[in-house]
Design brief:
The chain is α+β, with helices and mostly antiparallel strands. It has three domains: 2-52 and 165-237 and 344-394, FAD/NAD(P)-binding domain; 88-157 and 240-342, D-Amino Acid Oxidase, subunit A, domain 2 (D-Amino Acid Oxidase, Chain A, domain 2), CATH 3.30.9.10; 403-503, Orthogonal Bundle (Helicase, Ruva Protein, domain 3), CATH 1.10.8.870. It has helices spanning 25-36, 73-89, 110-122, 163-176, 223-230, 299-312, 369-384, 407-417, 423-433, 437-441, 460-469, 475-482, 494-503, and strands spanning 2-6, 9-21, 41-44, 60-61, 94-102, 133-136, 152-161, 180-182, 186-193, 196-203, 206-217, 239-250, 258-262, 268-274, 278-282, 286-287, 324-333, 347-351, 358-363, 453-455, 458-459. Strands 4, 5, 6, 7, 12, 13, 14, 15, 16 and 17 form a ten-stranded mixed beta sheet that branches. Strands 1, 2, 3, 8, 9, 10, 11, 18 and 19 form a nine-stranded mixed beta sheet that branches.
């Protein structure tokens, strides 16, 4: 606590090197990197961690194969390099995923796809993923779910990730390095006084003022609005809001391969194995002009996604098959592209030239968040007098220190040590928490030690852990972001968890 002059009076105010506004993937990544370099960091988020864009992705860590067609080679190369780093940093919440692309001669010729996949394989070094290959869909297991007219195709590798848990792990690592993380805390205004930013923060208990030597605006879809409404500055960049929607249906195929489908409008849609019993389908690209927090999927988008998969799969789906849907707003850098799908997924960092810097993050994608954070902290560190070197490219995220970096090997360890856990629960705990499950389970030696089952598959000990260690506050935080248990039980069962949270 420092004593500073505030509105002409000496007052005790918390002072930090860096205030990060926004608890999505970019904000938590920046807070983690900065705290690891020895800077004092406060992160505030107006809602829950990953409450908006960062939990509404297609759950992929990928280079973006389709961006090669628009000649974004540097973006793809950068993303492919980061894909390798991330797969090694959190092997419990990320894993390789093999994609099958059925060939449709009416859309793209074979030679074009072969050339694109060759580039995708070689733009960056691959240590964990297999190279692409041509396949015969009449003999390949992935062909059994497809219509008979698809005979040839390709298979290539990318990565899958639990996006919301990735955000939480970055926040946890930031806190482990000394950062303070405040959710449900809105930054109302920042003003410059005597070489420091004075930020007014508000939460359920009221307002407070903190001081920071620098501020990061990582508010995603709100980035331009935050500068306009809460700061005395302006920015050169703006964002273009593009909505991406997804649907989840009962499992359409029994194997572990995913699919990438080409559409007649030149866009692509993924169909991905999801939560064992489901298939995740997405995404759309639609210009969006509404309030980012209120984004919802539209019936026309559901029809669009169903029509694309029905063009390829034997099993046909419609609106009645949709068990869950979600939509998010991507804050893409404004450019001249007429098609929202063609807007660049790269990012820009804009820093104000004052003595107390304000850095705003425009654009980006989840795959490149770590590099974005590293570059952002590089820009700020020089101004804040920090000479600590970048470190996250070799660091493991909490729970990711698996034996031999192998999830399969870790699962064997968990099975030997916690044989009393039901197998589905054992796999879910290992996937969600990695080695942190030892902290979660503590001295428990039987299922009864986990306390009452307050929601199907959710025992009291896990709920306590999520509230205590992962900033969970509501049933939505727990059932749809920290876990996906909401998919596996009727919605009315959530009331039991709400009641438990209220008592807690």
């Amino acid at each position: 606590m420092d004593t500073i002059v505030l509105h002409g009076k000496m007052r005790a105010v918390e002072k930090y090197d860096l205030l990060v506004v926004g608890g999505g993937i970019n904000g938590t990544g920046i807070a983690r990197d900065a705290a690891g370099r020895g800077l004092t960091v406060l992160l505030c988020e107006q809602d829950d961690l990953a409450a908006h864009t960062s939990s509404a992705s297609t759950k992929l860590i990928h280079g973006g194969l389709r961006y090669l067609e628009t000649l974004h080679f540097q973006l793809v190369r950068k993303a492919l390099q980061e894909r390798e780093i991330l797969l090694g940093a959190a092997p419990h919440i990320m894993r390789p995923l093999h994609f099958v692309m059925p060939h449709d001669a009416h859309l793209r010729p074979m030679w074009m796809i072969r050339a694109g996949l060759f580039l995708y394989d070689h733009l960056a070094k691959r240590r964990r993923l297999a190279a692409s290959a041509a396949i015969n869909l009449r003999t390949h297991i992935a062909g059994t779910a497809l219509q008979e007219r698809f005979v040839r195709g390709f298979v290539y590798s990318d990565g899958w990730a639990d996006d919301a848990r990735l955000v939480v792990l970055n926040a946890q690592d930031a806190a482990l390095h000394g950062a303070r993380v405040m959710t449900r805390t809105r930054c109302e205004q920042i003003e410059l006084a005597e070489g420091l930013w004075r930020a007014t923060l508000s939460d359920a208990s009221g307002a407070r003022v903190v001081a920071a030597r620098a501020v990061v605006n990582a508010t995603g879809p709100w980035v331009s609005r935050f500068v306009r409404d809460a700061t005395p500055l302006s920015t050169a960049h703006t964002v273009r809001l593009v909505k991406g929607s997804h649907i989840v249906v009962p499992r359409l195929f029994p194997h572990r391969f995913a699919y990438i489908f080409q559409n007649t409008d030149r866009r692509i849609v993924f169909a991905i194995p999801y939560e064992h019993d489901f298939t995740l389908i997405g995404t759309t690209d639609i210009e969006y002009h509404g309030e980012p927090a209120g984004v919802r999927i539209e019936a026309a988008e559901v029809d669009y996604l169903c029509a694309i998969v029905n063009r390829y799969f034997r099993e046909q789906i419609g609106r009645a098959d949709v068990l869950w849907s979600y939509a998010g707003v991507r804050p893409l850098i404004e450019d001249e592209s007429a098609d929202p799908a063609a807007v660049t997924r790269d990012y820009a960092l804009e820093i104000d030239g004052t003595a107390a810097p304000l850095l705003s993050v425009f654009g980006g994608k989840i795959t490149t968040y770590r590099r974005l954070a590293e570059q952002a902290v590089d820009l700020l560190a020089a101004r804040l007098g920090s000479r600590a070197a970048p470190w996250t490219h070799r660091a493991i995220l909490p729970g990711g220190d698996l034996p031999e970096g192998s999830f399969a090997a870790f699962l064997r360890v968990v099975e030997r040590r916690y044989g009393w856990l039901p197998p589905p629960l054992r796999v879910r705990y290992a996937s969600a928490y990695g080695t942190a499950l030892h902290r979660l389970l503590g001295t428990a030696a039987a299922l009864a030690d986990l306390g009452p089952e307050i929601f199907p598959g959710l025992y009291e000990r896990e709920a306590e852990y999520l509230c205590r260690e992962e900033w969970a506050v509501t049933s939505v935080d727990i059932l749809w972001r920290r876990t996906k248990l909401g998919l596996h039980a009727p919605p009315e069962r959530a009331q039991q968890l709400d009641d438990w949270l209220a008592r807690r």
